[in-house]
Amino acid sequence: MWLLEEGDLSKLGEMQASKWLRIRILLDEKTLTQWFDLIGQVCFVNLFATKSEDALIVSPEEVLSRYTQYMEQIKAGKEVDHAYFQKKLTLHMTKDPKSCYKTALKGKSIYFAKEKAPGVRMALFGFSWDKSHREIHSNVYSKTTISWGLEFSYPQIFSGSLDTEVVYLAQEKDRPNSALFVQLKQLIRRASKPVKFIYEDQKIISSLRMDKTGGAWINNHFGLKENSLKVDL
Predict the structure, then answer these.
(1) What are residue 231's DSSP bridge partners?
(2) How far apart are alpha carbons 82 and 177 in whole angstroms?
(3) What is the Cα–Cα distance from 90 to 98, expressed in whole angstroms?
(4) How many CB atoms within 10 Å of residue 156?
(5) Are residues 139 and 150 in contact, defined by beta-carbon separation less than 8 angstroms?
(6) Running DSSP on this structure, what letter comes out for residue 50?
(7) How far is the C-alpha of 19 from the C-alpha of 25, rounded, in Å?
(8) 45-66 pLDDT per residue, tens
(9) Cα–Cα distance between 13 and 137 in angstroms, integer?
(10) Which residues of the chain have pLDDT under 70?
(11) Other C-beta atoms lying within 10 Å of the C-beta of residue 196
């Protein structure tokens, strides 16, 4: 079982990162299950504050359960509670248990994890559709957010908040989480395809991706239908 070390923010600081590489994909839950089998042992750390210390670590099985609940709603054409699943699926994914540490608010039973070194950030992704300009705006959250699966991101540069040493991750490919992100990119490339939307007979190019198996259900997506969008299959 993975365990987080206990630490003090004033002594350990937290990661400062930039130049994030990001991949956004609407992924079938069966594909995600296959990926976890291929990736092997990995730890998921909750990036939201919690009242239970045990809730800081989330098992791969629990992550799959949460994502399956999310995808069941997407496939059924139901409106997704994006904010709810965003809290459930915003996680630090790591093969290095020392990349995070746990701490607590003094005098209160509120616990949270701090990132000390890069892991793959996994988060629920959504976008908004600007009909007037026919543009997609990423990570703009409102009642009309179109929920679109997961975003996997990894920084190219980081440092600690208490020191000035800058680490360029492209030069440190032996880091286990750098290798993890490379593996995820390869899996995503094989399992997905780029997405073009159709709006009033006009094709809209995007940077988003979707599961190759999603043709049977993608155009049943509640958010797309509400915005008169379709995926060009």
Answers:
(1) 197
(2) 27
(3) 19
(4) 16
(5) no
(6) B
(7) 19
(8) 998 888 888 899 999 999 999 9
(9) 33
(10) 1, 107, 161, 170-171
(11) 14
Threshold 0.85, pTM exceeds: yes
Q: Measured between alpha carbons, how far is 63 from 188 in angstroms, rounded to an integer? A: 18
Structure tokens at 158: 């980081």
Phi/psi for 160 (5° steps) reads -85, 160
- Per-residue pLDDT, 161: 65
| Tally of CB atoms within 10 A around 25 | 23
Report pLDDT digits (tens) over 134-174: 999 987 777 789 999 999 999 999 887 677 778 887 667 77
State the Cα–Cα distance between residues 29 and 89, nearest whole angstrom. 13
Contact 188, 34 (CB under 8 A): no
Radius of gyration of the chain (CA): 19
Local structure of 8: helix, strand or coil = coil
Backbone angles phi, psi at 56, to 5 degrees: -70, -30
Instruction: Give 3-state DSSP helix, strand, coil % of the chain, rounded to 5.
Output: 35, 35, 30
Q: How many CB atoms lie within 10 A of CB 93?
A: 23
User: CA–CA separation, 109 vs 125, rounded Å?
Assistant: 30
Do β-strands 146-160 and 120-130 pair in parallel, antiparallel, or remain unpaired?
Answer: antiparallel
